[in-house]
Design a protein that fits this description.
Distance between the termini: 50 Å
CATH class of the domain at 32-269: Alpha Beta
Strand order of the largest sheet: 3-2-1-4-6-5-7
Number of helices: 18
Order of helices and strands: HHEHEHEHEHEHEHHEHHHHHHHHH
Oligomer: single chain
Largest sheet: 7 strands, mixed
Shape: globular
Radius of gyration: 24 Å
Number of strands: 7
CATH architecture of the domain at 32-269: Alpha-Beta Complex
Structural class: alpha/beta
Amino acid sequence: MLHTMLVVLYFAVLLALSSYGLHRLHLVFLCLRHRREIERAKQMPEVAEEDLPRVTIQLPLFNESTVAARLLDSTARMDYPADKLEIQVLDDSTDETQALVRAHVDRLRERGVDAVYLHRTNRVGYKAGALDEGLKVAKGDLIAIFDADFIPQPSFVRSIVGHFQDPKIGMVQTRWGHLNRDHSVLTKVQALMLDGHHLVENRARYGADLLFNFSGTGGMWRKNAIHEAGGWQHDTLTEDLDLSYRAQLAGWKFVYREDVVSPSELPEDVSALRAQQYRWAKGTVQTARKLLKRVLSSDISFSQRLEAFFHLTPHFAYPLLVTLSVLLLPALVLMPATDTLTMLIVDLPLCVATTGSLAAFYMLAEAAQGRSRLNALTRLPMLIALGTGLAPHLSKAVFEGLRHMAGEFVRTPKQGVNKGRYRARADLPLLETGLCLLSFGATVASIQTGHYFATPFAALFTIGYGYVAMLVAHEQATRRREAAPSLLAASSERPSEPTAAAEQPVGKLAA
């Protein structure tokens, strides 16, 4: 009985994971099938100089002293008529960023730039709240948005503004570039992951006339589209995804421009990456809770509804992956490899689902930007390992998103000119360590029982969990060492007063 239950559960998990793998292959097929439609987006209507619309560029900030000046300077260099361009700095900062940015805006205004500084005394709605406040007083008919770690290119507005000649276009999204792609293995893998999203997912959905989303930055909205969709709402942590679906359900069309690149900075430590991915995972689940039923019952095509389902539920693969990791060892022990049917059930689906679809997906992403497909193949093992290592943390995000709407918007720390100024908090990687040991046991068991198809994947699970656990533990140890001298000095000055850091629970690090 136990054996039968294990087989059924194991197969169910594999089947669910395989469905997401097949979906990736479907996106690759759509990209290849709709190449003409994708290329057609580059043929933007020209706009006479006197007919250029007024544009507002919104720059939402929160404690971004390391990158704020770079962002403001690059935005001020925008190649667009000064009398038709407004720069809104939406600053919720509570540190020195306030004074730094306010002074920078004053200098820009002295140069004739229409720059406006708006500071809120609270963070109601977080980024969505700041964007909404700015929208109320924005002068532009079109609204471009850039996060603090981006470097807007001078040609950005002119490159996409012509699309809005079509009154049905509500948003244009551009591709993200990666300033520090080659900084480390971690950034190389992140770059590949994001390239997959932009150069496969976005291109496929746009080319096939499916619903896709504004990525939160590096894009431009029609102000009326935002208003008619219900405005910025902050009951989810992915306000960009939420608004995107509401706008498209209201009839607005989106355009994706892969040839217009907005460079940005990738997180360089795993704690920052985990914080970023946690927010995206939790927010996507919240958006699915909020809108999926409405999307599936709306008057759109079946293919649009089906793609929306996969678009809004990808993070459920993380708890499935953790479940697979837990089931792998007993499955290998209890199912004899000599049984051909058993090998097909246990080993082959794992092999195909985790490699075939991923290889095709990321090879296309590399080829689309003129890079060698071999780059994707060589980084694929580390990509699988990193995705596995992040799975326990992101599973928590999925369950949190299922239980609660909204929540604290924890922004991703940026490196900029002062590396180490802002840091993400991290819990002790106990779950990752336990899963690493369990996966190591599965690796040994796969060899001893003859399940050789499973051996490389059990090994990758081991490496992934161990890699993330090691990086998080190392970052925490380094920060404790760096904080020790200042804590010692503070305690010697105020021996009778415990410091805030001393009262902080082990495993929680101040940003």
